[in-house]
Write a structure and sequence with these properties.
Elements (H helix, E strand, L loop, with lengths): L3 E4 L11 E7 L17 E4 L4 E6 L1 E8 L3 H14 L4 E3 L2 E5 L2 H9 L4 E7 L35
Parallel strand pairs: 2-4
Antiparallel strand pairs: 1-3, 3-4, 5-7, 5-8, 6-7
């Protein structure tokens, strides 16, 4: 199987690109080594040197209805707590199928159903899991004068 190496940052028409074929991949298969995700229609290079068009493969998702702020707040809290990537639409949120959440949401008054669809989560910074190296190349000087009034009443 070809391993995807990098997303092409150019438009399809900028160069005469020879697209080798389409790769239909689920969301987890569209994650690049640097943590970047590929979206439906993106072009990426493989370790074989070829260029591939990415197709978001339909997969089993939970379609969570959020018709009002109350449901949106509950869903946001639960999903944020689990750091789950989410596809946000008008009045709904979709996530990868998680049986525990499929069972939990109805008890919270939120309607949920299973759908088969391409998963295209919103890729805001909250969804990227960065691994930071704890070693820094510079000194941190923490000699600050802090004047505190210690008057307790």
């Amino acid at each position: 199987m070809t391993r995807l190496v990098a997303k092409l940052k150019t438009s399809r028409t900028a160069y005469k690109l020879e697209v080798k074929g389409k790769l239909a991949l689920p969301y987890v298969g569209r994650q690049l080594p640097k943590g970047e995700a590929l979206r439906n229609g993106d072009l990426a290079t493989g370790d074989d040197g070829h260029v591939y068009e990415i197709v978001a493969q339909p997969e089993k998702l939970l379609h969570i209805e959020c018709p009002a702020p109350r449901e949106a707040a509950i869903v946001g809290y639960v999903l944020g707590n689990g750091h789950l990537p989410a596809q946000i639409g008008k009045g709904f949120v979709r996530i990868v199928h998680v049986p525990e959440l499929e069972e939990a949401f109805p008890s919270l008054g939120v309607k949920v159903s299973q759908v088969e669809a391409p998963f295209e989560p919103d890729l805001g910074q909250a969804h990227h899991h960065h691994h930071h190296d704890q070693h820094h190349d510079h000194d941190h000087d923490h000699d600050h004068d802090h004047d505190h009034d210690d008057h307790h009443h």
